[in-house]
Design brief:
UDP N-Acetylglucosamine Acyltransferase, domain 1, 2 domains, ten-stranded mixed β-sheet, nine-stranded parallel β-sheet, 5 helices
């Protein structure tokens, strides 16, 4: 009971203020339809459903929150699948409501991340677009190129021979283009570090999360294709190629020369052995250990990663054997 009261107290004033804007104007920018009775209504704050008040805009994205939404006094951004269950009058209905919410929040985010390049280290030989936003403490070395609309967050490091396309975001403390982990074995087992001088190419609209590391390629570049998204603490080894639109959850790691197709989904803490190939549309479950090639549109799990249904059957069999032994 006390925990619930404290949580409600903490929610007082929760929300994100926005300059007052007609609900209809948001729909014009991001799509969807606003109920006639609500078109001229002004939104001054975005708030979670449990804290939303009259005049706020709050999202309704899942059926489990429907009952609470029906009693809320706020304007509702309603996913179209739920619209028939919400009486007209307070709705902004959108076929992809979460996408619309991301657009509205993105407008506010752009206002909050100011360019602090005066507090960054930008070498004279680096090329940084005039409209890029550079965070305090970031380092951009000579020979790096930062494209239009990029955001380099505080303390990120961009090495030479790194090319960032348009609208790339590099998270705080991420490191892009550092020579990777590679050693050659010589006489007597001596190790010689293999210089990685091929750089990194990051195409347009890529997100590289905070504390990510993207290693330079050896002779040619490591490549992260357009629209790929890397969560925090992801490691991309030298010569890796991450396909267009691929999503990688936190703490996953790709050893050298892995090739990942387009539209792949990678769960958190998945690991990939060097030189494996992942086909387009594949889905890799969290904590999977990928040590061989994965065909396109295949769902895999476990270590070694195999087809998910097969892995689940194997786990069930082991549990049955374990239970009999007890």
């Amino acid at each position: 009971m006390e925990a619930g009261r404290l949580r409600r107290t903490a929610l007082i004033g929760v929300g994100i203020a926005t300059p007052p804007v007609p609900l209809a104007a948001l729909a014009e920018r991001h799509g969807g339809d606003v109920d006639a009775a609500a078109r001229s209504s002004l939104v001054a704050r975005l708030a979670p459903l449990e804290a939303a008040e009259a005049g706020d805009l709050t999202p309704l994205l899942a059926r489990r929150y429907l009952a609470r939404a029906l009693t809320s006094p706020a304007w509702l951004l309603v996913d179209a699948s739920l619209a028939p269950d919400v009486p007209a009058g307070r709705r902004w209905v959108h076929p992809h409501a979460a996408w619309a919410l991301a657009g509205v929040l993105g407008e506010l985010e752009a206002e909050r991340f100011a360019d602090r390049r005066r507090d960054a280290v930008i070498d004279a030989g680096a090329h940084v677009a005039a409209d890029a936003r550079i965070g305090a403490g970031a380092v951009i070395m000579a020979g790096a190129r930062v494209g239009a609309g990029c955001a380099i967050e505080p303390n990120a490091v961009v090495y030479p021979k790194v090319t960032l396309g348009a609208r790339v975001r590099v998270g705080a403390c991420a490191v892009v283009g550092r020579p990777g982990f590679g050693f050659a074995v010589g006489p007597g087992g001596d190790l010689r570090r293999m210089p990685q001088l091929g750089g990194v190419v990051v195409e347009d609209d890529v997100d590289i999360g905070p504390l990510c590391t993207v290693d330079a390629g050896t002779l040619g570049p490591t490549v992260i294709a357009r629209g790929a998204r890397l969560d925090a603490h992801v490691h991309v080894g030298h010569n890796v190629e991450i396909g267009q639109g691929t999503l990688v959850a936190a703490q996953s790691g790709f050893a050298g020369s892995v090739k990942v197709g387009s539209g792949v989904r990678v769960g958190g803490q998945a690991g990939f052995a060097d030189h494996v190939r992942i086909g387009p549309g594949a889905q890799i479950a969290a904590k999977a250990g990928v040590i061989g090639d994965i065909r396109e549109n295949t769902v895999v799990a476990g270590y070694p990663a195999i087809e998910r249904g097969r892995w689940l059957r194997g786990v069930a069999q082991m549990l049955r054997v374990s239970a009999r032994r007890k």
